[in-house]
Model the fold of this input.
Amino acid sequence: MPQDGRRISPATVETIAGLTAGLASTIIVHPLDIIKTRMQLDTSPNPLLNSSRSVAHDILRNEGPTRIRALYRGLSPNLLGNASGWALYFLWYKQGQDLVRSLRAYPQNKALTNVDYLLASAGAGALSAVLTNPIWVVKTRMISTSSATEGAYPSMIAGIRSIWRTEGIRGFFHGLIPALFGVSHGALYFLAYENLKIWQRAKRQDQQLSNMDTAIASALSKVFAGTITYPSQVVRSRLQRYDPGAKIITANPGFIRVTTDLWRNESILGFYKGLGPNLARVVPSTCVTFLVYENTRWALPRLFNEDSTDTKTVL
Done:
């Protein structure tokens, strides 16, 4: 411990690790997030007509003022949402595990069960979803429109002001119901991730996991959870969209209406529009997130010369 008596708390470690991981992963894959959202909002009955390649080509050719600006439109709310979302999620996920362990009176060396992991991750996900939903509304509206479109939000602050002025507080919570359904994504992800890490440690006879082990576990878990829960993302995007050229903001159609219209007009394939670029975005993003997270949470206590029982992800 440092001579000045400073000590970094476990909660601070989790928050900083999650914040750092969210920032790094968002910057890397933001362009794919734009393509995915544009595909989710396409209402044509044939999803093949609006492929990820055609969407990307259209953005690069028609939007600007530069290609880089076009590909990174809406980055500020995406950075804020992901960084704060991951920071809060990891903080509450760790606290949720501690709470479950305390309520069940587990000894320190007893592993949590699958149900325990589900409860901790679902609770963390629900709290994070509610607090970050306003940011996601602004992000969705920014990346779903070109900056040249009349009425499009020129910045995150402008978007917040516009929503407050025209829709009130309720405008910030469009898509919250499917977002809460999407909490199951985090629960399924962490269930798979924790079990894969246990399996990998057993194979290595409790030796330290490598970065490759972490990347494989996070990638497989993301594909598993992402494919199962993806339809909720499509519904949420459609609830959060808006027409920037509209003179009057119409009432939100509602979760049930959007879901039934999607099924009636676009069939089951409509619920999976943008899945390809989504997996191409979230799998490397998740790998980066958890590599940064695992290594940051290992390194921070050692920067303060503290002993840590955390298993290091080997560099």
Q: What stands out?
A: DSSP finds eleven helices and no strands in the chain. Residues 311-315 have pLDDT under 50 and may be disordered. Residues 82 and 188 are 19 Å apart (CA to CA).
